[in-house]
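Re: beginner question about structure tokens

> Can someone show what the tokenized structure looks like for a real chain? I only ever see the sequence side.

Sure, here's an example I had lying around. Input first:
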Amino acid sequence: FDGVFRNCVVMMNGQFVGRHLSGYTSFGFDVTEICLFGEDNAVAVFVDATDNELWSYEGAGIYRGVRLVKTASVFVPQWGAYVATGDATDPGSVKAEITVRNSLYTPVECVVKNEIIAPDGSVAAQAQNPLRILGVDEQTLHWATALDNPVLWQLDDPQLYTLRITILLDDAAVDVYETAFGVRYFDFDAETGFSFNGVPMKLKGVCCHQDHGGVG
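And the corresponding structure tokens:
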């Protein structure tokens, strides 16, 4: 669920799945043991918008996308990849944290294949790392690499790289997880103010409450 306002309870096939309080953060639940494979499943979402999180009118109900994610038993979970890039002295430095979960009751030996895809579609960096995960457990892999002459993410030209993670079991790909990121750096200086990619820049913004016109 990308957004449900607010204090929601999710049910599936008449069973309690989970609860989420905030109307502004996304969330997800594992329904493996509740869903009926090969059959129809009923999902009910109850919301209580009595309490507010802002001072303005905030609406109620499901206001963002909802999707069902099907994975293998060994997979990268939701929000399982984190990518950070370098600073002005080394913008091409990339550090990634990748979490792999094993939902089987037995340990597994897998290989985590990482690829960084450049904006033009070429492979800018890659590596493979073996990983052993105990039953019903997860492991986090730390990977550091560097991009030669990286294409910077600019306001007028938002070029994106993609970290593509492939989980291999017995040389077979069982899960592919992708997350996009941009290479950029910024700085705050008492004399020149804010600079983005080494260029002084004014910060401009807007206060927009949800998607409701006229109340922002």
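Each token stands for a local structural state, so reading them left to right follows the chain. The radius of gyration is 21 Å.
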